[in-house]
Amino acid sequence: MPTRRRALLILAALTGLAQLSIVVALMVGSIPIGPVEVLSTVFGDAVGTAADVVRSLRLPRALTGFACGGLLALAGALLQVLLRNPLADPYVLGISGGAGIGALLAIVVGFGVTGINGLAFVGALAAMLLVFGLAHGEGGWTQSRLLLTGVIVAAGCGAVVTLMLAIAPEDRLRGMLFWLMGDLSQTAEPQLVLSVLALLLLITLPFARELNLLARGADVAQALGVAVRPLRRGVYLAASLATAAAVTHAGAIGFIGLIVPHLVRLAAGNDQRLLLPASVLAGGSLLVVADTLARTLLAPQQLPVGVLTALIGVPVFLFLLSRAAPGRG
User: Fold this and answer.
1) Which of 24, 87, 92, 118 is the most exposed place for a label (fewest CB within 10 A)?
2) CA 233, chain centre distance (Å)
């Protein structure tokens, strides 16, 4: 099968999976809604309780979940190229920790959803600038320096988060813990995070050839005409903004940025022209499915979606490690 045709089939299959996951998310819940009614609500002018539930609650939540999952998977794919480390994920550089400090501070103070999102984004950007500033020595930064700086900043942010949980009022603890474990229940306007996802994908795709060369090593890329230093900075900035936007809207949700690029790479190869959009579609679908399970498994009680992604991600990652173990064909 020609490579181009195979790539188109993979993207078509993942697009269909994304659409199916969103439709199922709109159908399932305390008020079951049939597929015909869902489609007439989304694409028509249906009225009634079911239409209000779909338009006001389930559709914004599903679209936000898809966008956040896509952003995390995109950030993971970019960071694995940047750091040349298959274990790199969106939270390895401390951005999630910075967002966590901002969000928990907003919850303690008593801010609403807008205030929580705003301070979380400010915290994520502050952590991003701190990591980049500390890692950028006199001779620039290397993958190992950036990774070590990110790990240290993440550890420091984790200590601050633990301190805030220890001294927070008891009536705020549940909301703080839910945010830290990932929560899509407070989402209302998905337009912004969807726009960020589309913009970052449109910005990074034209550099897919350069990313393919960078994945082979900085020396190889530079020898073949790639401006390595500006490319690295751009990749770091794009991955950081993607992580900040996702964490701001959904809290800290693990494993998506780690396992999704791995799974897509197994199915589609390491060509960034296919890997980046395929990771976005697969990551978005996975988070929508996990969020649907989180709000229906123990209904009417809702589980943090980060718990579900971890329960899905741990066995998948262990399976991937077993396939890569020495001595296996």
Assistant:
1) 87
2) 20
